[in-house]
Specification:
heterodimer; A: 265 residues; mainly alpha; two-stranded antiparallel sheet; 71% helix; flat; B: 664 residues; alpha/beta; Rossmann fold; six-stranded mixed sheet; 22 strands; 17% strand
């Protein structure tokens, strides 16, 4: 398993402290949550994508799959927004788009688009973080900069290694139970019982594996000394400051530009 | 390391006893021994004898990380492990466990090695060099930035060793380090241990089941019995010489050449010095080659017959045609109208595989390429090859666990790809490597009866049938136990029983002897042999070359997804090029036969007959005399006197012991 979707590269974004990138998603989220028109979130989305490509050296191709997924979600969001919109501009007689027997108020379309654009903006900002952040560095930065107790941090590492193994185990258990399925009942209740039947071996095997990992970690003196050192350290430096200031300025500029655009029309 | 008389032993164990939390019986009882610096000690014992528990006591994980009641003392460098901290202990005793997939917590090789250094608060500036050094020692220097998940099993175990070495301990404890590796991976690791031994900087304490490959590294053997009592402690030759039979009987795998030596001794030929390795056996037996006669095992001949064209196979397994063993089996199957056992004739293959290729969804490489062969009733076929060669993929395609391409796999002429799963499951069984994956019942009885109940067999009949099956595998006393509470060997036998109760004609077993001690493995293999004799067809996916040599009539070798070889093991093992290409090693007795220049390779330790000392006796007489494994008349007449002079003045003096290893 090669990170979940992490794109390994040597880029300015990869070199930033993961927490810087994570922290910057807060203003993005706030601005997006407050936006009542689609332009601001669309602009933020575009900015995040361009940054991921240019500063993060993530090829468009790697961006395509998550983008496709978010586009699909966005369409759903748009449709829901349009259908259930009941705010100003939805009263009969308001300007609307005639689609056969349907009359869709313009305001509803704008609302739907805003909803979709918000989703895309959040998604793009998360992609910037996920695609350019080594999960190990992220946990380390939580330990170093956010003072997460290291025992919890390393628990996360061990769990992270664990996930694909549990997946394999489950696939094996399903196959093994499948071989024993020689016929008989196949109702929904039976299916439920069968799914429950996977849980016991999966749990037993996982618990034992976790115990073995814990024993191996203890045997290598994990947590035995009052202090520990770190081979890889994460720090927040000037690059982080520059990036944070730049990103905040860009967010502010977008908000201002959209505001000006709104006041002139 | 200069010998200093005043130096403390590396490890001192005095009256050590340990009982795990929640267990009634202690795992270890009153164990005492000392390990000197630089010794290589092998710990032997049957399953459940407390070998792993002892290993954990040596590095301090007991009592620091594992709960239980500890008696007596363990001292490392003179310090009681109870008082010492794990940080102090980790710098002195390192441990490598058996499961390559559950001893790491980081994602990359270098991070994993660094983890142990970080725990010891090593200054970060020193880490680079220490990581490099440790990885270089195990031959992983070029994998430094690799993801651990991409390493092979053998590489993972070497990484585990590197992680420990980086912490700088003098004592290395290895708890069955090769038991989960393929032959190539095991060989890599053993070569590495040999390298460490040559450097003589470490004390090695190894727990192992399979001894043939490691005996040359060992200076001393400790034997634990099933009760956790230390019953032998001494130089390997002396211990194995005295204990081979007891060890074998208690379930420990002893070197095959030692078993052979004992079998010869029973026939009056004393092999001296008592051999522990193939090289020693070849030396010791060379003068007596003329007196050895190898008998091809009966089952092997018939199995070889099975490899011949159809008609012969039918004749060789004459009994197989009116089998389907017990009528209960057959009726269980026939109730669903799926039993086609009687349709099997000597001329039509049970299973026919033609041009089978397979690629996993979303995988880059092809897992199987154009594999063709067929299986006939009553065969025991082994599928071998290194990890990743496609063995499991093939086994799963045969049994429909993976969907084969249409027309590629036919069972009695019917396309497996189009057979409904439940119907296929009634005809083909699959025993998974980990028995726990397969249990569906809350008790042993429920688990075995599960399939019968699903087929709506009347409850009384189902229970009766299940009980017969349970008795067959010797688990009657555990009928009401939960399958997860059984020992490994018991679980394996239960999984076979649960699978076989329906009377499938074809049974595929994935690594059936894996993790089994000798007694359990032999019991299981005998059971499989009996099934084969009753006409069942068995396919065994295995790394265990002993199984291949001793039990299989035919072997399929896979390499990189292609079928490299399909024929009797004797032919395979006499083709070194092929073995090399498939990264396989011939079993020890085979290698011995080659070195001795025998025409017929030795299959099992009891298949060699000793001819008369003067060589006058004809071969025929010898066979008659020794057919039952008892001493031949000639040998008895000679009073079992050794006919060969001992190699050295003292037969029991170990030849390869270092001075340090010889204890008062």
């Amino acid at each position: 398993m090669r990170g979940f979707v992490w794109h390994e590269a040597d880029s300015p974004l990869h070199h930033l402290n993961p927490l810087t990138k994570l922290a910057l998603s807060v203003p993005v989220a706030v601005v997006v949550a407050l936006a009542t028109e689609p332009l601001t979130p669309l602009a933020l989305m575009l900015a995040a994508l361009v940054a991921t490509r240019l500063l993060g050296h993530v090829p468009w191709l790697s961006l395509l799959r998550p983008l496709g997924f978010s586009a699909l979600l966005g369409v759903g969001m748009f449709w829901t927004g349009v259908t259930f919109y009941a705010g100003p501009g939805s009263e009969p007689g308001a300007p609307s788009l005639a689609l056969g027997p349907l009359a869709i108020p313009h305001a509803a379309l704008v609302y739907g688009l805003t909803m979709a654009a918000r989703l895309w903006a959040i998604f793009a900002a998360s992609m910037l973080f996920v695609l350019t952040t080594d999960p190990v560095a992220f946990v380390l930065s939580l330990i170093h900069q956010a003072r997460l107790p290291y025992r919890i941090g390393y628990g996360v590492f061990a769990a992270y290694r664990f996930v694909p193994l549990v997946g394999e185990e489950l696939a094996n258990i399903r196959a093994a139970h499948g071989v024993r399925d020689v016929g008989g009942r196949t109702g929904p209740l039976d299916r439920l019982r069968r799914t429950f039947g996977y849980a016991i071996p999966l749990l037993a095997i996982s618990v034992r594996r976790a115990e073995r990992v814990a024993l191996a970690m203890d045997s290598r003196a994990f947590g035995a000394l009052p202090t520990r050192t770190y081979y890889r350290t994460t720090s927040a430096g000037r690059a982080d400051l520059v990036f944070a200031v730049g990103a905040l300025a860009l967010i502010a500029a977008i908000v201002a530009a959209v505001g000006m655009l709104a006041s002139t029309t | 390391m200069p010998a200093q008389p005043t130096r403390l032993p590396a490890i001192e164990v005095e009256h050590l006893g340990f009982r795990h939390v929640g267990r009634k019986r202690p795992t270890l009882r009153d164990v005492s021994f000392r390990v000197q610096r630089g010794e290589s000690v092998l710990i032997l014992g049957p399953s459940g004898s407390g070998k792993s528990t002892l290993a954990l006591c040596l590095n301090g994980a007991i009592p620091h990380a594992v709960g239980g009641k500890l008696h007596g003392t363990v001292r490392v460098d003179g310090a009681d492990t109870r008082a010492a901290s794990m940080g102090w202990l980790a710098r002195r005793v390192g441990i490598v466990f058996q499961d390559p997939d559950s001893q790491f917590c980081m994602l990359t090789v270098e991070d994993e090695v660094a983890f142990g250094l970080e725990n010891l608060a090593v200054p970060p500036a020193e880490m680079d060099a220490r990581i490099d050094e440790a990885l270089a020692m195990v031959g992983l220097a070029r994998r430094r930035r690799e993801q651990i998940a991409r390493l092979s099993g053998g590489q993972k175990q070497r990484l585990a060793l590197a992680c420990v070495l980086a912490q700088g301990p003098e004592v290395l404890v290895l708890d069955e380090p090769t038991s989960q590796l393929d032959p190539a991976g095991a060989a890599e690791l053993i070569a590495l241990l040999g390298e460490l031994r040559r450097r003589a900087k470490h004390t090695l304490i190894v727990v192992e089941h399979r001894l043939d490959a490691i005996m040359h590294l060992i200076d001393r053997v400790l034997v634990l019995d099933a009760e956790g009592v230390l019953v032998a402690d001494g130089p390997p030759r002396a211990v194995l010489r005295q204990q081979t039979e007891q060890l074998a009987a208690s379930g420990v795998w002893v070197p095959l050449v030692s078993e052979l030596a004992l079998a010869l001794e029973r026939q009056g030929l004393i092999v001296d010095p008592f051999p522990l390795t193939v090289a020693e056996a070849a030396d010791a037996l060379a003068p007596h080659v003329a007196r050895l006669r190898v008998e091809p095992a009966a089952r092997f001949e018939s199995a070889q017959g099975a490899y011949q064209p159809a008609a012969i196979s039918g004749a060789a397994n004459g009994s197989s045609l009116h089998v389907v063993g017990d009528s209960a089996h057959a009726s269980a199957v026939r109730t669903r109208g799926a039993g086609r056992s009687h349709g099997a004739t000597a001329t039509s293959p049970l299973l026919d595989v033609r041009g089978l290729s397979y690629r996993y969804p979303r995988a880059d490489a092809t897992a199987l390429r154009d594999v063709s062969f067929s299986l006939r009733a009553g065969e025991l076929v082994a599928i071998i090859g290194e990890n990743g060669a496609g063995k499991s993929t093939l086994a799963r395609l045969l049994t429909g666990i993976l969907a084969p391409p249409r027309g590629a796999v036919r069972l009695h002429g019917r396309d497996v790809a189009t057979l409904p799963r439940p119907e296929l499951a009634r005809q083909v069984g699959y025993v998974f490597q980990n028995p726990e994956h397969q249990f569906v019942g809350a008790t042993v009885l429920d688990d075995v009866a599960y399939g019968l109940r699903r087929l709506r067999m009347p409850e009384a009949a189902a229970l009766a049938r299940a009980r017969v099956m349970i008795a067959d595998v010797g688990l009657t006393h555990l009928e009401a136990a939960h399958p997860f509470t059984l020992s490994h060997g018991e679980q394996r036998r239960l999984s076979v029983a649960s699978m076989l109760v329906l009377g499938q004609e074809l049974l595929v077993l994935d690594e059936p002897t894996y993790g089994q001690d000798r007694r359990n493995a032999i019991m299981l293999l005998d059971h499989l042999d009996a099934l084969r004799e009753r006409g069942r067809t068995l396919v065994v996916v295995t790394h265990d070359m002993r199984v291949v040599a001793e039990r299989a009539g035919r072997v399929l070798v896979l390499a990189d997804g292609a079928l490299l070889f399909d024929g009797p093991p004797a032919t395979l093992f006499s083709e070194p090029d092929l073995l090399r290409r498939a990264r396989l090693e011939p079993p020890p007795l085979w290698e011995l036969s080659r070195r001795l220049g025998l025409r017929t390779p030795i299959l099992t330790p009891d298949s060699v007959r000793v001819l008369g000392a003067d060589g006058a006796e004809s071969e025929r007489t010898a066979i008659q005399a020794g057919g039952d494994g008892r001493p031949s008349a000639v040998a008895e007449a000679n009073g079992a006197v050794p006919h060969c002079p001992p190699f050295g003045p003292d037969a029991n003096a170990p030849r390869r012991l270092s001075a340090e290893a010889v204890r008062p």
